[in-house]
Amino acid sequence: xxxxxxxxxxxxxxxxxxxxxxxxxxxxxxxxxxxxxxxxxxxxxxxxxxxxxxxxxxxxxxxxxxxxxxxxxxxxxxxxxxxxxxxxxxxxxxxxxxxxxxxxxxxxxxxxxxxxxxxxxxxxxxxxxxxxxxxxxxxxxxxxxxxxxxxxxxxxxxxxxxxxxxxxxxxxxxxxxxxxxxxxxxxxxxxxxxxxxxxxxxxxxxxxxxxxxxxxxxxxxxxxxxxxxxxxxxxxxxxxxxxxxxxxxxxxxxxxxxxxxxxxxxx
Length: 267
Fold this sequence. Notes:
alpha/beta, 15 strands, 6 helices
């Protein structure tokens, strides 16, 4: 693709089976490393668990949790790990972070007894998610670890303000981490596209029922391929054109943009 965004070319391999509905997982506990999944499933990943709506298929979530090279629970997300994965025979979090206003005391006591490292982050000027990503970045760098992606579960829920703050965190972390970050919730997934050329690979078109592409700040000029309603150099901005209720019709989607866009999709 030529023109519009300059320089940056990025390839995205969202694992659509991690969205967690029975229709997308096909009750397949091996979905994360099935040949039907995208090539990212064979790479290394870190996992972060927030306190939003969680995964319906616990076996698929467990696979993602157990195979992560860095496992982090954030405040109330720790309750989910404790309640759903069980007390015994589970892969423990490497880190638990947050201001701990929603992590239950019995859960905190259990993980402390197992020697899990707790990072108290009381600064109320930043969200628990952003502070967690700072700690994750520092941990990866201190141990000379590299990941192909960071999977963030529980990224969506009943609070619209939390959703906007999570998107804002994706923008802010660009200042210090190059790792692609995928926000994952029941039936949906999102990630932030910088200015440039992007290639998104979808393994199973039958799973994805909708998609959207919206600017997160300034007006953005975009060209796309692989969508039912493609953009051809139009400017997207709030109060005018944005791309919602779109559909994926090809396994390989291209997006060229001169500003930041949020890509969203769901089943």
